[in-house]
Amino acid sequence: MRNTAKITTAVLAAGALTLGLSACGSDKDAASDTSGPLVVAASPVPHAEILNFVKDNLAEKAGLDLEVKEFTDYVTPNTATEDGSVGANYFQTQPYLDDFNKKNGTHIVSVVDVHLEPLGLFSHKVKKADALKSGATIAIPNDTVNEGRALQLLAANGLLTLKDGVGTSATPADITDNPKKLKFKELEAAQTPRSLDDVDAAVVNGNYAIEADLKPAEDALVLEEAQDNPNSNLLAVKEGQENDPRVKKLAKLLTSPEVKKFIEDTYAGSVLASF
Questions:
Q1: pLDDT tens per residue across all 275 residues of the chain
Q2: How would you classify the pairing of strands 88-93 and 233-238?
Q3: pTM for the predicted model, two decimal places
Q4: Mind spelling out the 3-state secondary structure of the chain?
C-alpha cells in the first residue's frame, strides 16, 4: 500500500480565495527547507500515481525525499504552492496556470512538461458525436481554460463554430453557429463525469475520466489531438524555487525513460508522455 497523504478538499470559488490560509494545515513552510522532503500537491490520477511511481522506484537512488499530497480540485494545489504549504505541484496545464496567476495574483511558474491528458467528449446515450439530437445538453468544465478547450474540441469536430481567435478563452457566448442547437451545462471540472446520466454528453478532462473508469482512448466520442497540443500537464513551483535541488531532481526523474514507459504501460494512450 502506498504511503501517500491524501487530502480531500472542498471546491473553492476562485473569487473567494484566501491565499494566506494554509491548504495543508501545517505551520511549516514546506518550500523553505531544502534539506527536508519535497512535498508535491497533485491530482490523484494520473499525477499522484506517476509521482508515487517515482517515489517507489526512482527517488531513493536519486537522493530525493519525496512526499505526495493529493487534492481533488484545481484551486488548492496552487494556493498551497503560493503560500508555501507545499513545495511544488503537478496537476495543471500552462494555459490554466497563466489564467490562474492573472486572476489571483499568484506567482507560480512551470518547471517541466510531463504529460498530456487529451480532453474527450463522452456519452452514456449515444455512440457517435453526430448522433447527438437537436437541443442536446452537453456538460462542460466551468473554469476559463478548460471550458475554452471543451468548446474548441466541439468546434474541431464540426459540432459548432466559434469566433476567430478566441482560443482557450472561449465561452458559449463566442459560438457563432450551433446547428444542433446544443445547450451547455457548466460544471466544476471534477463533476463532469458524474453528470453523464443527467446530460446527453459531457466533455471531461483526462484525469477525471480515468478516475471515473472511462478510457479516453477507447470510450471518447471525440478526443483532442496530441500533436502540437499546448495543454501538457506540468511540474510547477512558486517563482524563485526553480533552482531548488530537490525540484531539479524531480524534474529529471519525471522526464526519464522509466516514467515514459510507466505512462505508456499504465494508461494505454489515455495519457501521453510530453517528452
A1: 333 343 433 333 334 344 443 334 444 455 556 779 999 999 999 999 999 999 999 999 999 999 999 999 999 999 999 999 999 999 999 999 999 999 999 999 999 999 998 899 999 999 999 999 999 999 999 998 899 999 999 999 999 999 999 988 999 999 999 999 999 999 999 999 999 999 999 999 998 999 999 999 899 999 998 777 888 999 999 999 999 999 999 999 999 999 999 999 999 888 999 99
A2: antiparallel
A3: 0.74
A4: CCCCEECCCCCCCHHHCCCCCCCCCCCCCCCCCCCCCEEEEECHHHHHHHHHHHHHHCHHHHCCCEEEEECCCCCHHHHHHHCCCCCEEEEEEHHHHHHHHHHHCCCEEEEEEEEECCCEEECCCCCCHHHCCCCCEEEEECCHHHHHHHHHHHHHCCCCEECCCCHHHCCHHHEEECCCCCEEEEECHHHCHHHCCCCCEEEECHHHHHHCCCCHHHHCCEECCCCCCCCCEEEEEECCCCCCHHHHHHHHHHCCHHHHHHHHHHHCCCCEECC
Of 60, 17, 66, the residue nearest 40 (C-alpha)? 66
Tell me how far apart the alpha carbons of residues 150 and 168 are, in angstroms, rounded to a whole number. 8
